[in-house]
């Protein structure tokens, strides 16, 4: 075999090991086994099954696999322990390092491989609803820490935008709000404002309403009351066309424009919805300006999301711009200009996860 053959064979083997670990993490996350280890300490198979449920024999295989992969540690008494740093990544829903939902998202995509294959053959799509609850909740859960802990300071660092959002009685629209954490964060950061979250996916709107009410989440309930959200954040099922004209001081679109079959229509509706002097802000993936082979890990990850989730979702409704996750800045600029904006500025917000913030010029 050639050196290149050996290298790629090893590359594929490492990818297979990573896939196995992602799916095993998904199982441990959904079964509650990581949380049981994080909250109650080391356990053997029988203890883990008693604490969190599940079959002891499967628990033993999973614990051993996790230790073989270097995720769990084995204590001197033979029980399995979850190290604190790993526990933060897999169980701490408030941490910016929380990535367990990534495994859940990829597992949800994997269940749709037959439908994805058909879409690839026919040019059709696989809509967001087809991916189910795991996909919907995983995206909300993975973005939540960034919206809760980083978004207020990020926006405060853009003085003119921050001043706009602090206007007494300011009205903010959050288009494509998903599980609602972005709208909740905006309402918490700007106590004089009201925020309306809009999404075409009815189950996402129901999830957003539950999240805003803090149902099943004592931490969210306390934060909601402390922030005085009251009725200042609301959610409705619909699209940007329902925003109306001249009603909002700001319209946000967080990580959703690349999914839309007709992004120009959405951006044009957002523009019409503004009061004089208002702002449209788009947060989307921080990909490079142009395609390059042998790309960095961020580009590879975004292409993965696009192949399995976002491009098929965007193509599930026709006609479609078929953007995909890897929406280059030039693509957004073109969409914005076709929607009637004069240009696009990149906001001075850095180190914000996978994302970049754009302000569309009126």
Automatic annotation (TrEMBL):
Residues covered by the Methyltransferase domain: 172-278
Name a GO molecular-function annotation.
Answer: methyltransferase activity
Task: Spell out where the chain crosses the membrane.
Answer: none
List residues of the S-adenosylmethionine-dependent methyltransferase Rv2258c-like winged HTH domain: 23-91
Keywords from the named record = Methyltransferase, Transferase
Q: One matching Pfam family, short form?
A: Methyltransf_25
What GO biological process term is on the record, naming one? methylation
* CDD domains tied to this protein: AdoMet_MTases
Name of this chain's protein: SAM-dependent methyltransferase
The organism is Nonomuraea glycinis
């Amino acid at each position: 075999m050639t050196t290149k053959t050996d290298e790629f064979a090893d590359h594929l083997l490492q990818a297979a090991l990573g896939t196995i670990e992602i799916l095993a993490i998904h199982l441990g996350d959904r079964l509650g086994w990581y949380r049981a280890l994080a909250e109650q300490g080391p356990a053997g198979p029988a203890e883990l099954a008693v604490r969190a449920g599940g079959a002891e024999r499967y628990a033993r295989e999973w614990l051993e696999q996790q230790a073989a992969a270097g995720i769990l540690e084995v204590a001197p008494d033979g029980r399995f322990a979850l190290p604190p740093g790993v526990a933060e990544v897999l169980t701490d829903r408030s941490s910016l390092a929380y990535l367990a939902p990534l495994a859940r998202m990829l597992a949800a995509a994997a269940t749709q491989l037959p439908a994805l294959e058909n879409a690839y053959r026919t040019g059709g799509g696989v809509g967001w609803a087809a991916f189910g609850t795991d996909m919907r909740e995983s995206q909300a859960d993975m973005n939540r820490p960034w919206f809760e802990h980083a978004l207020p300071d990020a926006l405060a660092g853009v003085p003119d935008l921050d001043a706009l959002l602090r206007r007494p009685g300011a009205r903010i629209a959050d288009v494509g709000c998903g599980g609602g954490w972005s709208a909740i964060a905006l309402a918490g950061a700007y106590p004089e404002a009201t925020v309306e979250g809009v999404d075409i996916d009815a189950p996402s709107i129901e999830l957003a309403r539950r999240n805003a009410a803090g149902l099943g989440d004592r931490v969210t309930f306390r934060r909601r009351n402390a922030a005085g959200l009251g009725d200042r954040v609301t959610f409705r099922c619909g699209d940007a066309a329902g925003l109306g004209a001249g009603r909002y001081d700001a319209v946000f679109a967080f990580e959703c424009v690349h999914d839309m079959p007709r992004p120009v229509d959405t951006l044009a509706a957002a523009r019409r919805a503004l009061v004089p002097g208002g702002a449209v802000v788009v947060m989307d993936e921080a990909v490079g300006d142009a395609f390059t082979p042998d790309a960095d890990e961020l580009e590879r990850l975004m292409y993965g999301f696009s192949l399995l989730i976002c491009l098929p979702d965007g193509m599930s409704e026709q006609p479609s711009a078929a953007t995909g996750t890897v929406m280059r800045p030039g693509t957004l600029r073109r969409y914005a200009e076709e929607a009637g904006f004069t240009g696009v500025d990149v906001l001075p917000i850095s180190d914000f996860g996978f994302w970049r913030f754009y302000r569309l010029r009126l």
